[in-house]
Amino acid sequence: MAGRVQIPTNNSALIAMIADEDTVVGFLLAGVGNVDLRRKTNYLIVDSKTTVKQIEEAFKEFTTRTDIAVVLISQYVANMVRFLVDSYNKPIPAILEIPSKNHPYDPAHDSILSRVKHLFSTESVASRH
Amino acid sequence: MEVADHKTQSLENGQAAEEEVDEIENDNVLQFMDSMDAYLTLVHSLSSTLRQGWLDLASARHSMGAYRLNTALLDHTSHPAATSLLVDEGKEPHFTLCKWRSSGNEKLLLGEEQSSHDKSHPQLRHRGATLLSEEKTSFENKASCEIDDQVQKERSKSLSVFGTLVSPKLRAAQLSFETALETLVEIANTRSEMLRAFDKVNQKSGGSKD
């Protein structure tokens, strides 16, 4: 995105989370929680009341913040904003889709694997021979 | 006759060059497949670790009560993350996890660096060197113990959000999610490798089919 300052090399950066309550609580126990002076957090807890718009806003905020290096997003949440996740192609922050308690990981939906799967399509293989 | 020899040599050179290109292409494809395999293996490992973490959390909630383990208790006052990442943006970004970093830890880590710097200085006498190395070992042990203490303090601070006395299952959940973080950092690095290998393979095959 134009104008975004890259994270300075070898400086510390945060891990952001967009996930269900248990996943976020677990990672907060592991010490990744950050609250800045404006009381902005590096996580969004997604529950039944969370709207798609809120998830989109959180995703856009975390991917444009200069102090975040990795964004963890539950795969079922990523599916709600799949167009946003799939159109994101910057190296940093890295978007990692993770399983959730009630939704196991599905490689077919992973945006990174979707990007590379065309290499294995029959048309792609035929075009190289 | 000479012209024929020259033509044959050119053909052989061309074939050798083509074989070399094919070999490089095969290496790129192998590298891509290896990184993709590593990525999937790590994700599978992450799923197991997270499952254990969720189970421990559920057990902790059962023993402590749901009112003691919910997001309403989270600390919303300004505080930095105790666990963060170091990012090295080279040809491909590389992530390193820094667990439980605090100002105390940084001072101790600086002390460790000083001690390792001192090692590079030559020893004057063998007898003195032995004493010196013993002192350094005890300093390193002391520094290591202090770091461990600091890490335990940070862990306890993180748990204290949910009360002074917490279930052992909550501590177990904390460790599970710490392990999950380590796996996630490996996944992030493997993802970078995979994308880089994919770009190389794509370049060779003449662009992607998006």
Structural description of this entry:
The complex is a heterodimer of chains A (129) and B (210). Chain A has 129 residues and is an alpha/beta fold. Chain A is 36% helix and 18% strand. A 4-stranded parallel sheet of chain A has the order 2-1-3-4, sandwiched between helices. In chain A, strand 1 (12-19), helix 1 (21-29) and strand 2 form a beta-alpha-beta unit. Helix content of chain B is 72%, strand content 6%. Chain B contains 4 helices and 2 strands. In chain B, strands 1-2 form a two-stranded antiparallel ribbon. In chain B, strand 1 (84-89) and strand 2 form a beta hairpin. Residues 106-125 of chain B have low confidence and may be disordered. Chains A and B meet through strand 1, helix 1, strand 3, strand 4 and helix 5 of A and helix 1, strand 1, strand 2, helix 3 and helix 4 of B. Strand 1 (12-19) of chain A pairs antiparallel with strand 1 (84-89) of chain B, so a sheet runs across the interface. Chain B: GO terms for molecular function: unfolded protein binding.
Please specify the SSE layout and strand pairing.
The complex is a heterodimer of chains A (129) and B (210).
Chain A: E1 12-19, H1 21-29, E2 43-45, H2 52-64, E3 68-74, H3 75-80, H4 82-87, E4 94-98, H5 111-116, H6 122-127
Parallel strand pairs in A: 1-2, 1-3, 3-4
Chain B: H1 2-64, E1 84-89, E2 93-98, H2 103-119, H3 126-159, H4 168-204
Antiparallel strand pairs in B: 1-2
